[in-house]
Amino acid sequence: MKEFWDELYSASAYAYGKNPNSYFKSCLDKLTSGSLLLAAEGEGRNAVYAAEKQWNVSAYDWSEIARDKALKLAKEKHINVDYHLGSLKDLSLEANSFDALGLIYVHFPEGIRQLNHGKLLSYIKPGGHLILEAFHEDHLEYQRQNPAVGGPKMLQQLYTAEKIQSDFVDFNFHYLEELEITLEEGFMHNGTTKVVRALAQKPF
Questions:
Q1: pTM exceeds 0.70
Q2: Cα(84)–Cα(91) distance, integer angstroms
Q3: Between 3.90.1150.10, 3.10.330.10, 3.40.50.150, 3.30.230.10, what CATH number should domain 2-201 receive?
């Protein structure tokens, strides 16, 4: 799997572009800046945008190529991102230390999804926020019609609003919806599909 991502990110172009995900941007713009953790952040498009908005950004990914491109993008924008190389199990972060968590197209397989989401939510401070956008289970049908939309090809890696609500059961969901959208993100996300979007707050 790591080899797949290294090969994808080895292109000179940015796989999902240099601009932030539109839903992530719209949510972040409503929040007061603080500390932000971005999981599986890839080439840094969301991290760099957040840092430009005065967020103190930590990110991680297991692809060294992705990290290097993220740091290059950060340098172009004259900002800093604390970028960890490794997977979630390699992180040694303090519990309750982030004001927000961004999960933008982070797809954990069914067997570890709840465990990983549980670990990630432990890093959010009481009162902190979760911002999530991910492909819905119906995505496979859209993908069959248009492979250019990208995304996972296995049902067990796709989400529903019910799964997200269950994984973050104690959170107060300001927004949780399954909807059809059209993606235009780099060369990997292009076309219409169905996604799950959430903005939720950890209770105080």
A1: yes
A2: 8
A3: 3.40.50.150
